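Notebook B, p. 112. Complex prediction, attempt 2.
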Amino acid sequence: MPKPTPRTRIQERNRSVILNAGLDVFSQFGFRGSTLDQIAESAGLSKPNLLYYFPSKEAIHVELLESLLETWLDPLHAMDPDGDPVEEILAYVHRKLEMAREFPRESRLFANEILQGAPRIMPDLTEGLKPLVDEKAAVIRDWSKSGKIKDIDPYHLIFSIWAMTQHYADFEVQVSTVLDGADPFEGASKYLDTLFRSLLTA
Amino acid sequence: MPKPTPRTRIQERNRSVILNAGLDVFSQFGFRGSTLDQIAESAGLSKPNLLYYFPSKEAIHVELLESLLETWLDPLHAMDPDGDPVEEILAYVHRKLEMAREFPRESRLFANEILQGAPRIMPDLTEGLKPLVDEKAAVIRDWSKSGKIKDIDPYHLIFSIWAMTQHYADFEVQVSTVLDGADPFEGASKYLDTLFRSLLTA
DNA sequence: CGTTTGTTTTACCGATTGGTAAAATCAAAC
DNA sequence: GTTTGATTTTACCAATCGGTAAAACAAACG
């Protein structure tokens, strides 16, 4: 157990304040583009005080990334092989879109990490994400083979769901510039429903 | 004319060497995460020698971004209102996917800039990208109204094309981890063709 | 040759980087 | 209310940051 549970309330509170500030900064500038001073100011603490709660800049980043990936894969985990194929896949789409709306910073943190070559999260990708995707891809393939949905590549289906839902979080600046004030997620939800429904059932 | 054409061959060659190195570094680490020393080493030049050809780190970044956006919007520009709607849209998809394969660094450079809030390219977004998207969205809307394609939100259609094609460049590490060696673009081309064809014609 | 122009290197600068030492302060238990 | 441990601040450090000055070098040209 390398991370003993925080003892006091102050530790609990300050650690979460720091992680929240770190999420703000890392999600915008990536690991190398972020500074401890930025995070400290955003957290309302002094820099040495940050380092009283975390041993290093990297420790904050790693803790954010690791707690992220679990949450990130939950919706995919929830895809039920025994449910109705079309509704299961569409439910996954909507859950993923909802996460992009609720946790845009987490989405951008992940995007930054992947853009930089996943130096800190690669092991979790091969040992956590890949097996899960393989498992769910097999489920989707079975649905295709048994004629319950159209015959499509399950991997690219999953990629396309990731790409389109995360796009609304990661490229929010661009999206809202083009839409000029309108709420992107409203329209996105309807559009994605139509898109994937027509793909799976046509 | 703030940028006089380079006079000598050495200038022409070194400027392009520097821009190429800058593209390597900036596309991976973003503006703030990149250093002049990194770019200099990647270019095989000394840092002061870099600054002989470019006045600052930012100047390299800006020049990369500006020359990028033109190229980036070309495929959308090429969408012909008088062509066959389905084929025009699909041609756009394939052109965009081809660009993601040929110019993944440019895609990641752009992604980094947007992730960081588009601090250096926002004007070009509102003055260049938005009007073009509005124009093409109107074209697509006309196609919908006249029954040539199904009734869909043209803005979200365009977003989805961007998201899915650029995903293969921006998230290349993740994609190739999951696919484990297979060429992503082969399957992506077929999948995207099926996806958008069924959306537009079903 | 010498001169001029273009190019590269050496040496350096102040500011900021991630991180540390240790004193000062605070909080809670005794 | 004092003692003990948790917390915060002050002062600092070596390394790296973006950038500059100026000398050294190279090339073209008369």
